[in-house]
Amino acid sequence: FQKAKLAKGQYETASVQEQLELELAAMQMEEQDNLTIAEYIEHLKSKNIINNDNVYKRIFNQNGEIEEISEAALKINGEIFVVYIEGTNIKVCYEEGNVMASDVDSAETDNWLNLKYEENGEDVFILRNQIKSIRFVNTDIEPLSEPFYNVAAQGREQNSVACCWTKIDGLYDIIIGAKGGVTAPKNCRSLFAKMNNLETLVFNNNFYTKNTNNMFEMFNLSSKLSLLNLDSNFNTSEVVDMGAMFHEMTALKNINFSQSFDTSNVKSMWYMFRRCTSLESLDFRTCNFDTKNVESMCRMFGTCSSLGKINGETNNYEIFNLGEKFDTRNVLNMSGMFGDCKSLTSLNLSTSNFDTRKVESMSQMFGWMNALETLNLGTKFDTSEVQEMSWMFYDCWSIKEIDLSGCNFDTKNVKGMFRMFEGCKVLKTLKLGDFGVGNEGIEGFSLANNSFFSGTPIGNIDLTISEDAYDWFFNDLARGYYNASNFKTVNGEIVN
Question: Which of 177, 337, 374, 383 has the fewest CB atoms within 10 Å, counting from its CB?
Answer without folding.
Answer: 374
